[in-house]
Queue: 2 jobs
Job 1
Amino acid sequence: MIRAVVLAAVFLSGAALMSLEMAGFRLVQPEFGSDIIVWGSLISVFLGGLAIGAFLGGRLADRRPALWKLGAILALGGVVALSIPLYSDAVLDYMFPGEGAPLPEEWNDGGAGTGDGQLVVYMPPDLRWPTLGVGLLLFLVPAVLLGMVTPYAAKLLIHALGHLGSGVGKISGLSTVGAIVGTLGTTFYLITWMGTRWLLAANGLVLVGLGLALALAHLATPRE
Amino acid sequence: MRVRIILGMAALAAGVAVLAVVPSASSDDTVVRYDRESRYYRIQVVDYPAQGRRCLHFSKSRGIQSSMILADPVRLDLKYSQAMIAALALHPDPREVLLIGLGGASIPKFLQKYYPELKLDIVELDPDVVRVCQDYFEFRGNAKTRVFVMDGRMYLKRAQKQYDVILLDAYAADHMPFHLTTVEFIQLVKSHLKPGGVAASNLWEKAINRFYLAELKTFQATFPQVYLLPAAQSGNIIVFGTMAEEPVTRKDWVLRAEERVRGLDIGFDLADLIGREYRFLTDRKIGEAVLTDDKAPVNTLRHEHPKHFEEEGASP
């Protein structure tokens, strides 16, 4: 029973992570375009979050691991996902590329060209750091929280797993399969069906639900 | 054996070197002038000597972005680009024009030649496209032309300038950036139009599909008046939105077009094109949802056939 709940948490948190990432692209593209910089930034933020989460989750798991604590991590991730639409517009506005830089005067007056056939070309603002900033502000925290799940689950199941190598491999593999399901499910079906905001909300609700399920499992487990 | 391998490699290297230097002539008698991966596309410039044409492709298998008649580089060769010019006739007195999506610069070259007093701003995402237009499509600057290299929506968000006519040519057949289709974007376009302004968008569709209807619906949701010119046989459909309270009839638009091109040898019959293809869309019922930033399943809709749509045009 515990095993099943924890493995479900591993699978679904992997799915939610990638679903959030795909939703992230849709959230950012209207303001920042579909440049490859946007992809690079968001993917890096999610990978960074996973790394930090794995590190923190592992440390937390070594201090009196409990099912309810894993539940709390997931529920917190869910709450963050649910709240992203509340502040995403403010974050995008704040980080809007070149917003801090003064608008070139000649942008808004008449023609600034010369008559000699030389083309007047204005080059774009630098997208790199603003895009990375948006990724960090919107998605680092949920990615860290979801990244904590795998090591924590491994610790919880360490006795049920038997051999450590195959056990950890199973958890890691399950998480990645979940990530694939989350990626394909989101891009092939869910974005079209529910739109970005509802998708974020749905992910949040699934994670909060998982957190509650783990808390219930904790209560149902006989104390030692 | 070893000698043969070395010889083979030398021949291969020589072949690669030749390919890299000389425009390659393939069996169907085309000459590739330029073929390079840019940050956004694979840009190809291909000559078709039998037709006397030079075309811009974002990968050759994916349709023509732009076409130029080598003997007459300013002529609008593609039907859709001719239909885009109709926007200038929908406006009573266009002076400032914004073009989003440079393509092969056919529309800018046309406007520079026939309407030299127009102030023309152009927004193009890809700096290599701007360079290719200068190097292969005879695009030059003048005192009235400016080019901004960036995403079209990003430009509109930053610029405060307003225009008489905004031409949207930012879609390619297989590259439909969803953030340039939504009602939020079209409203941003509208907010950069002066009173009486006109927006025109090339929807680049070969057949009626659900995306195309949803985009028409999105124009309806934004502009008081909406018109359509299906550009015959080119797979492009131009939708026009205007700020005018009163609709423009087919006859009015034709008359204005005749006025606009009077005394100019523009190489095609603009008035006739409008007269033949005019569709009035303001009141047309369209059974699709408006596209929004939150929900714009553009690539799904493009592959779905609509349940029902009357092709016949109504007149106001």
Job 2
Amino acid sequence: MSVRTSCLYFIFICCFLLTVPGPIRCFCQAPSSDDTITNPPLSSSSLPAAPAQSATQTAVPAQNSALTTHTAETYTNLGTNCPGGFPTDLGVANCDYTGRMRRLDWVSTSLTDEAIYGSAFYALFTQYIYPIPEEWPRTWTGYGQRFGAHYLDSATEGTVEYGVAALFHEDPRHVTYYSDPKVLNKWPKRISNGNASIYDQIEFESHTHFWVRLGHAGLDSISDRVATPTGNGHRLPALSRAAGILSSTYSGYLWYPTSQNTRVQQRDRALLAFGANVGGSVFTEFGDDLAGAGSKVTHWAVHIFYPSKSHRPVWSNQ
Amino acid sequence: MRKRAVSLIVGVVLLTEAGCRVPNKQYRVQLDKSVVTIPEPNIVPINQDVGWVLGMPHSQWPLDISGASTVRVSEDYTVISPPLITPDNKRTDPEMAFIEFDDLGDSWSKPNQKNEGTQLDWALGLIRAAKAASLKTGIPPLVMVYIHGWNHNAQDTSAKDEDQNVQGFKRVLLNLADQDKNQVVIGIYLSWRGELFRDEWPVSQALSGWNRESAATRVGSDGPVTDALLQIAHEARYKSDGTILTDSSQRPILIYAGHSYGALILQRSLMGAWIAELDSRDSALLKSGIPPFADLTIFVNPASDANQTLPLLDLLAQKQILYQVDQPDSSGKTVPVDYPLFLSITSPADDATRFLLPIGHFFPAMKAKWLDTSLRAPDPVSCYDPLRPPGQQVGILNTQTEWDFSMTSAPHMEALQSHVLIEKQIDRKAKPEDIALAEKAISECRTRDYAGSDKSVFDTYALPGKCFVIEARQDRCNGTPYWIMDTNKDIIPAHSTIFTVRLIDLIEKFLPVVREGAAQLEPELELVQPPTHGTGVFDRPSLRTTPTIR
């Protein structure tokens, strides 16, 4: 496929986003109860109805006494606690994966700057470091072809994933081990100290279960959950992700040269897309730990270059 | 071909920039005119006494500012005030006002020739109505002003979901109102252009951090935000006849809160006013022991470097100002207890200020020429701790440079922390009876179980299965009413998760006026000794020997 065709495709998608008529948009988005959260006058009765406490608690087994210790805090019914959410968080009104959130995730990961910059870097990599396809020259034209092809790959994958997920009402977002409703429902049975909150217990356990968490990340890359208002939906195979990967693999027929459309090349493309999916799941699982480590490294690096005597208060009387 | 490719890339970038920016606009255009005015004797139109800039009524201002856009003179506005309290003395739901500022820090809503009320008028009208309501209830109203941070604004539901911060702030107000059914609660949401790119463009949004930090610095320094905050404070502190509202049962409890870059705006907008007020020997409010602007100013996860705290911190240390309440201790004896006027808190889980702020400040800071000095002698930073033995209460912090202050936010900097939050642990190797006692103490989590003779323990804070003790940091440099502390990820789990009951519960501990009944406690500002200026000599007075303001 030529640069011109790639560009036309890209511009078409941009125009689609900007001008797509309402009925089509409605068709594309999943049915959702909170898609139009209104802005009522400030009143507890007029705030968006929180499925919140009652809904969350009904989803939790009756023997889950430790989880209900949250309610001992000064809760109100103003916010809700999504599975794995922070106790007493008033900032969350709904745990559902709404049509608006679904559309935002689709656009922001597959069509806009994340996809554009990703394609730009990928094109650089495949032009100078690992040059594929060999038919495409290492010129501006070749760069445009590589950029366009990768962008179309990601746009196709994201669009198909979006459509299938909306169709089956999937919630394809990765969750961490300790945010997984199934894990949350299971943990309290193992807690011996009834005084401790589930949040504290889970936090404690988090330091000892690396392999369990890694396994959960693997599971989360091949399965997702049904979107529900409580965030407590059951797991199901990640059909949308599979469909997305397959569609981007085979749609490559349209824009890759012949050498890239062999079975081996298609397998490699599918594995690469699946690997990115697993990587995203692992990053979700261990992102906080990585950020903590990054913070320490940053402080260490900064003070290597610009050492100060001490961060502790050392004062003198002149 | 090369030209085409370059043109294409430039076109895409321009398309991104042009089409995806969040417009610089006012969101809350319509004031809620549907609420019918109920004439109350204490609800008066705004008059010329309202214009109040940098600590003084504008009638005393040395410059002619009558033409300035943000100071209104003798405008006979009729502000519609909603019924905050019903005829049968039942409180209605909390009310909320918006005050929006543009990208340059100027107010969107300005007086016009039709004499339509502005957003600020609406906010002041609410406070006025709340004061009138407190005459009936005898309970001071609670006025909370909140400035949002990065990637937020005052978005209503016209285009998409209401801004998450607006929703969170509403729920906080409702939570506060539910705690005391008789207390009127007012929320004022100060908004600026915190969101530059739409959510659909996450990379551009993430890269806009530097740009929005500059914008926040600009908005905070420009003047109108300061003006709005001071007018709100004036409305809360003064009667309509211009005299100070000394009756604490009527004087609204005023809280300023800022999050992330909103904290930066709050710091910059108030710093000059506070310095002017503290340097003034004629401050009527200071003389009467009333905090001039707010009862408590809170910076939650401030995305500002520690340099922003230094001028005020230095001044408070130099003047040895205390903010105290006389409270009975465990033995029933009345003792003065220190409280904060400023509270800057964060948590180790706030990666944005712990991890990203040093990265964001590293390269811009490399251009700067760093001096290890402070404006006020002695340099670099004055230390003051009233809890230290007499004769050792003042000193200097001699281990930090401006570079250090620039590379971290104040609550993450141990050298500036005034207090710490310590989780009480049980020593499992101790005797069984000691373990039982420790478990009992943790489950009850009472201050008197942990308070020592050194007065360092301020309070305790309980969570399910946990007990934290808030106490003065050992060997601290900062004993001023500008409290700076790192908390815990059980209280602040992330940079943006701040609208939680846990955090509200913690912050309420620092408010003397709502702790044990507002009418009983009257905190007072105290200046230990008049400072010496510019001599380089640092006096070392003993603690509270010659109070001049009490």
